[in-house]
């Protein structure tokens, strides 16, 4: 398996384009498939945005030949008008592509409680359509178009040993918590997989990647991850799964690194848990903890906050079996060894905390299950961004 350039446009049968003007953006992705299959996962928030309702209904009927997405307005908590507007987005693209509206996926991201600017979207539709392309710049343009408070566009792609390709783009920066975040993810592959297999692979990959990211603990109304297979190459499910997980994990780490106002990426690795769920609970508690996040921002070697987070996570923990170490992927410092404090390590810890990427490893000593979660530090700029989000 190798990492390749081109994002979603590295995949055979995929065309894309997008534009971004101020807070408004419009992205379109179209498919030329041999054997089409589409699957998706969506937010667990009970306040669900209109585009998700339209897209979920479409997936119940069949597969998606294209996706249209806008940024700047979430079209969430907008009632019946929101549903009409989301369906309108599907209809205007379907008319151009000569297909049915329920063959179009619709996505939106931005401010909740505001109606779509249909004039802006409709006025830029032809511009985006006329620029549809299979080149790598088209994937980047599409990824930029769906950004909101993101500071950089997010894309990843791999080629498997059998030449099957998997590519993805994503947006996400704030309102990120387990259960997915305010996040749009569009994944494509030229593998030939059934809808059932594709759905199974996506759920597993999302569970290990996007559902293990915490920026601020909020769960959005608009979370969506879609995967479409164009079906040009045969591929075994287990081989495909590994490639998909690599792409999703790469995108998830980008989202964590780009958390609103973030200066550091935090990776929490928990091993030795009695169960996989215990490992996940402890890892997510560490990257969710405001006290851990602020300590990382301030480079304060207050490692006790990590132990405390693991202790209240809901996972089974025995304090005399816990081990803890910090690293920057080059140097590491052991702070706790089977419940015993290792003295004289604070200066080494301070040095590691200067890094832009902090790895926290907690061994619970109770079993053989493990999990990894990603997050970021909590900074002054996070408050600034979200205090003035609509203004």
Descriptive notes:
This protein has 391 residues and is an alpha+beta fold. It has two domains: 254 residues, L-amino peptidase D-ALA esterase/amidase; 123 residues, ArgJ beta chain, C-terminal domain (Ubiquitin-like (UB roll), Roll). 35% of the residues lie in helices and 29% in strands. The protein has eleven helices and 17 strands. Strands 10-17-12-16-13-14-15 form a seven-stranded mixed sheet. Strands 1-7-8-9-11-4 form a six-stranded mixed sheet, with helices on both faces. It is globular, with a radius of gyration of 21 Å.
Strand order of the largest sheet: 10-17-12-16-13-14-15
**N-to-C CA distance:** 45 Å
Count of strand segments: 17
Query: What is the name of the CATH class of the largest domain?
Result: Alpha Beta
User: How many whole angstroms does the radius of gyration measure?
Assistant: 21 Å
CATH architecture of the largest domain: 4-Layer Sandwich
What is the helix content? 25-40%
Q: How many DSSP H or I helices? A: 11
Please mark out the parts with pLDDT under 50 across 5 or more consecutive residues, or reply none.
174-181
In what range is the share of β-strand residues?
A: 25-35%
Instruction: Quote the average pLDDT.
Output: 93
Based on secondary structure, the structural category is alpha+beta
The CATH homologous superfamily of the largest domain corresponds to L-amino peptidase D-ALA esterase/amidase
* Total of domains: 2
CATH names the topology of the largest domain as: L-amino peptidase D-ALA esterase/amidase
Element-level helix/strand string: EEEEHEHEHHEEEHEEHEHHHEEEHEEH
Shape: globular
The major β-sheet equals:
7 strands, mixed
């Amino acid at each position: 398996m190798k990492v390749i350039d081109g994002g979603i446009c590295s995949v055979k049968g995929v065309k894309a384009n997008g534009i971004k003007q101020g807070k408004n953006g419009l992205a379109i992705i179209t498919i030329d498939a041999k054997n089409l299959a589409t699957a998706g996962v969506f937010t667990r928030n009970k306040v669900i945005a209109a585009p998700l309702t339209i897209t979920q209904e479409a997936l119940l009927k069949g597969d998606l030949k294209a996706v249209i997405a806008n940024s700047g307005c979430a079209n969430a908590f907008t009632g019946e008008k929101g549903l009409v507007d989301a369906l309108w987005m599907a209809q205007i693209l379907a008319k151009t592509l000569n297909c049915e509206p329920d063959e179009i996926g619709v996505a939106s991201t931005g401010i909740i409680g505001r109606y779509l600017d249909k004039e802006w979207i409709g006025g830029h539709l032809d511009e985006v359509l006329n620029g549809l392309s299979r080149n790598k710049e088209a994937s980047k343009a599409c990824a930029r178009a769906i950004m909101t408070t993101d500071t950089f566009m997010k894309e990843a792609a791999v080629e498997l040993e059998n030449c099957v390709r998997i590519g993805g783009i994503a947006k996400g920066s704030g309102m990120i918590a387990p259960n997915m975040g305010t996040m749009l993810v569009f994944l494509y592959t030229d593998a030939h997989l059934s809808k059932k297999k594709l759905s199974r692979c996506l759920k597993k990959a999302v569970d290990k990647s996007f559902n293990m990211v915490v920026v601020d603990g909020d769960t959005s109304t608009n979370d969506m991850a879609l995967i479409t297979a164009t079906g040009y190459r045969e591929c075994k499910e287990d081989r495909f799964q590994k490639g998909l997980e690599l792409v999703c994990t790469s995108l998830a780490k980008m989202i964590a690194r780009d958390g609103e106002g973030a200066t550091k990426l935090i990776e929490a690795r928990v091993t030795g848990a009695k169960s996989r769920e215990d490992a996940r609970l402890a890892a997510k508690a560490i990257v969710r903890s405001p006290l851990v996040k602020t300590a990382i921002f301030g480079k304060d070697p207050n490692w006790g906050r990590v132990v405390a987070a693991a202790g209240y996570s809901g996972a089974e923990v025995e304090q005399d079996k816990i081990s803890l170490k910090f690293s920057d992927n080059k140097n590491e410092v052991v702070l706790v060894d089977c419940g015993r404090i290792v003295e004289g390590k604070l200066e080494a810890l301070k040095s590691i905390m200067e890094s832009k990427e902090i790895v926290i490893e907690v061994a619970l000593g109770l079993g053989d299950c493990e999990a990894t979660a990603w997050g970021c530090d909590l900074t002054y700029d996070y408050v600034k961004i979200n205090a003035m989000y609509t203004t």
